[in-house]
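Q: Could you fold this chain for me?
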Amino acid sequence: MLQVVGTIFLNDNKILLDKPSNKPTHQMVGGKVEEGETPLQAAIRECHEELGEYAEFDETKFIPIMDFDEIATSDPSIKIHFHVFQYEGELKGKLETSDEIASFLWYDTSYGEEILSNTLKHKVIPYCLEKKLIKLRH
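A: Sure. Below is the predicted structure, expressed as structure tokens.
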């Protein structure tokens, strides 16, 4: 089973999403756990890679909040175990797009669900709404 991580960054009742260059939907900052890495190490590495060198965050403020099994959005034959962390601080600095990441979005529900990966749509956004981390907006 593929081990995957994602990190929730929050600001003004919105969650930070990125839009990978090679995928049709937005997702959390994250990716695969590499061999020899813990999920926490993978989450921190992916944040450094995807947010760019000018993003500033404290590596001690990643809190594990949930994990679950799911089918990959990109390939229904791939089973994944997803580890979700919440960043307990303020993301500072400047976010940088790259060859891998086309854009960033501070998401609230006014954007709708059609832009979201299955993981966000079915697990993460409902969790954030239930915990009042983001607000329902129309």
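A (continued): The chain is about 20% helix and 35% strand.
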